[in-house]
Design goal:
disordered N terminus; two-stranded antiparallel ribbon; 237 residues; four-stranded mixed β-sheet
Length: 237
């Protein structure tokens, strides 16, 4: 998907990894990013948008074990994080059947282009910087997409920050950025910790090992749910 050059949309993109092990409502691995974003919002104040396209990465689900979880809607999260903007609709949804390594990179490539188009449509001329908060695998895929290099050897630690500036005259979001810093933890007392990279995943017969779905979700496997780009639907709203 092609789109407007990133320099016409944003002057910088930053990516933050949440702290692991914090206490928050619901499943911690689905809430950590929200809590980190909430704490940042309290200091900086900005448009606070729910973005399902940057959800946690789950490897392909083991057949017959159900589906992976999906983050709650903006309306359901607002009781915990009242600053959430419920007027924003996610432009991309990951499959609840999980993804292999190539598929999460494809998801983030598609998300970035869709996100830029929707931001320009919803907030024309009022945006210049974006802060993405997500989990390690998703942030690594996001950084690689921005750089246009899926083989970039990036490892990220808790609360690390990556920052990107647009490359002049580049077209589209994917590959249209250069890194000012990658997985930087210099703002932390002890630096970035508990780092993770895709080389840490468990591989069997050349593929990532399947994961188990959520017990009780087996009956949902045949029910249609949004997956992939939602741009065509949103543009009609």
């Amino acid at each position: 998907m092609s789109g407007p050059p990133p320099s016409s949309l944003l002057r910088s993109v930053s990516c933050l990894i949440p702290l692991q092990g914090i206490i928050c409502p619901g499943r911690s691995y689905l809430c950590r990013a929200w809590y980190a974003l909430h704490l940042t919002y309290l200091r900086l104040s900005f448009a606070y948008l729910p973005i399902a396209g940057l959800a946690e990465w789950f490897s392909p689900v083991e057949p017959g074990t159900g589906l992976h979880p999906r983050p709650g809607s903006a309306e359901s999260l607002k009781q915990y994080f009242p600053e959430i903007n419920t007027e924003w609709s996610s432009v991309w949804y990951a499959s609840r059947k999980g993804e292999d390594v190539e598929e999460i990179h494809n998801r983030i490539d598609g998300f970035l282009e869709a996100f830029a188009l929707e931001v320009e449509r919803k907030f024309p001329g009022t945006h210049s910087r974006v802060l993405f908060v997500s989990h390690a695998a998703t942030i690594i895929a996001l950084a690689r997409s921005l750089l246009g290099d899926r083989e970039s050897p990036i490892r990220v630690g808790c609360c690390s920050i990556s920052e990107f500036d647009p490359i002049p005259d580049s077209q589209g979001m994917v590959g249209g950025w250069k890194a000012k810093r990658l997985a930087d933890g210099s703002h932390l007392k002890d630096g970035a910790s508990r780092d993770w990279g895709f080389e840490d995943i468990e591989i069997e017969h050349g593929k990532v090992v399947n994961d188990l779905g959520v017990p009780g979700s087996e009956l949902l496997e045949e029910q249609p749910e949004p997956v992939g780009s939602q741009i065509a639907l949103l543009s009609n709203l």
